[in-house]
Amino acid sequence: MMSNRGSSLLAILAVVLFVPLFILRSLGSLDFWWWMSINITLLIALSFLLDGSYIHHILADLKRRPAWKIGAGVLTALFLYALGFPCVFNFAVWALTIRTEKTGISADLRN
To answer: Of 52, 51, 73, which Cα lies nearest the Cα of 62?
Structure first.
Protein backbone atom coordinates (compact mmCIF):
# COMPACT_ATOMS: atom_id res chain seq x y z
CA MET A 1 0.00 0.00 0.00
CA MET A 2 1.26 3.45 -0.91
CA SER A 3 2.23 5.72 1.96
CA ASN A 4 0.54 9.05 2.60
CA ARG A 5 3.74 10.74 1.50
CA GLY A 6 3.68 8.87 -1.82
CA SER A 7 0.02 9.70 -2.37
CA SER A 8 0.68 13.36 -1.61
CA LEU A 9 3.63 13.39 -3.99
CA LEU A 10 1.50 11.97 -6.82
CA ALA A 11 -1.31 14.44 -6.14
CA ILE A 12 1.06 17.42 -6.17
CA LEU A 13 2.78 16.13 -9.31
CA ALA A 14 -0.61 15.66 -11.01
CA VAL A 15 -1.49 19.30 -10.29
CA VAL A 16 1.91 20.45 -11.57
CA LEU A 17 1.51 18.38 -14.75
CA PHE A 18 -2.14 19.03 -15.55
CA VAL A 19 -2.67 22.71 -14.68
CA PRO A 20 -0.27 23.94 -17.41
CA LEU A 21 -1.76 21.39 -19.81
CA PHE A 22 -5.28 22.80 -19.42
CA ILE A 23 -4.07 26.41 -19.50
CA LEU A 24 -1.66 26.19 -22.46
CA ARG A 25 -3.26 23.26 -24.36
CA SER A 26 -0.06 22.76 -26.36
CA LEU A 27 3.65 23.17 -25.87
CA GLY A 28 5.42 23.74 -29.15
CA SER A 29 4.74 20.73 -31.35
CA LEU A 30 3.39 18.77 -28.37
CA ASP A 31 -0.39 18.97 -28.70
CA PHE A 32 -2.95 18.51 -25.93
CA TRP A 33 -3.55 14.77 -26.41
CA TRP A 34 0.13 13.81 -26.60
CA TRP A 35 0.84 15.95 -23.55
CA MET A 36 -2.10 14.33 -21.70
CA SER A 37 -0.84 10.84 -22.62
CA ILE A 38 2.68 11.60 -21.40
CA ASN A 39 1.35 13.00 -18.09
CA ILE A 40 -0.85 9.97 -17.44
CA THR A 41 1.92 7.53 -18.39
CA LEU A 42 4.34 9.30 -16.05
CA LEU A 43 1.88 9.25 -13.14
CA ILE A 44 1.04 5.57 -13.65
CA ALA A 45 4.72 4.63 -13.88
CA LEU A 46 5.47 6.56 -10.67
CA SER A 47 2.56 4.89 -8.89
CA PHE A 48 4.03 1.49 -9.80
CA LEU A 49 7.43 2.60 -8.47
CA LEU A 50 6.03 4.04 -5.23
CA ASP A 51 3.77 1.06 -4.49
CA GLY A 52 5.29 -2.31 -5.32
CA SER A 53 2.04 -4.14 -4.62
CA TYR A 54 0.08 -2.08 -7.16
CA ILE A 55 1.15 -4.20 -10.15
CA HIS A 56 0.04 -7.38 -8.37
CA HIS A 57 -3.41 -5.90 -7.70
CA ILE A 58 -3.75 -4.81 -11.33
CA LEU A 59 -2.69 -8.21 -12.69
CA ALA A 60 -5.01 -10.05 -10.30
CA ASP A 61 -7.88 -7.81 -11.34
CA LEU A 62 -7.19 -8.40 -15.04
CA LYS A 63 -7.52 -12.16 -14.53
CA ARG A 64 -11.15 -11.82 -13.40
CA ARG A 65 -13.58 -11.45 -16.33
CA PRO A 66 -11.17 -9.77 -18.79
CA ALA A 67 -13.54 -9.92 -21.79
CA TRP A 68 -16.29 -8.19 -19.81
CA LYS A 69 -13.89 -5.46 -18.63
CA ILE A 70 -12.53 -4.85 -22.13
CA GLY A 71 -16.06 -4.76 -23.57
CA ALA A 72 -17.26 -2.38 -20.88
CA GLY A 73 -14.28 -0.11 -21.53
CA VAL A 74 -14.87 -0.03 -25.28
CA LEU A 75 -18.61 0.60 -24.90
CA THR A 76 -17.98 3.35 -22.35
CA ALA A 77 -15.45 5.01 -24.65
CA LEU A 78 -17.91 4.89 -27.56
CA PHE A 79 -20.68 6.29 -25.39
CA LEU A 80 -18.52 9.14 -24.10
CA TYR A 81 -17.26 9.96 -27.56
CA ALA A 82 -20.65 9.81 -29.29
CA LEU A 83 -22.73 11.57 -26.65
CA GLY A 84 -20.23 13.41 -24.52
CA PHE A 85 -17.91 15.02 -27.05
CA PRO A 86 -20.50 17.40 -28.55
CA CYS A 87 -21.56 18.49 -25.05
CA VAL A 88 -17.98 19.08 -23.94
CA PHE A 89 -17.13 20.93 -27.13
CA ASN A 90 -20.23 23.15 -26.85
CA PHE A 91 -19.36 23.90 -23.22
CA ALA A 92 -15.80 24.81 -24.25
CA VAL A 93 -17.11 27.18 -26.94
CA TRP A 94 -19.49 28.77 -24.41
CA ALA A 95 -16.71 29.18 -21.82
CA LEU A 96 -14.34 30.59 -24.42
CA THR A 97 -16.96 33.10 -25.54
CA ILE A 98 -17.42 34.33 -21.97
CA ARG A 99 -13.65 34.52 -21.43
CA THR A 100 -13.19 36.46 -24.67
CA GLU A 101 -15.94 38.91 -23.75
CA LYS A 102 -14.53 39.53 -20.26
CA THR A 103 -10.80 39.59 -21.04
CA GLY A 104 -10.51 40.26 -24.75
CA ILE A 105 -8.29 37.15 -24.99
CA SER A 106 -9.45 34.50 -27.42
CA ALA A 107 -8.16 31.11 -28.54
CA ASP A 108 -8.75 28.91 -31.54
CA LEU A 109 -10.55 25.68 -30.55
CA ARG A 110 -9.54 23.95 -33.76
CA ASN A 111 -6.12 23.11 -32.26
So the answer is: 73
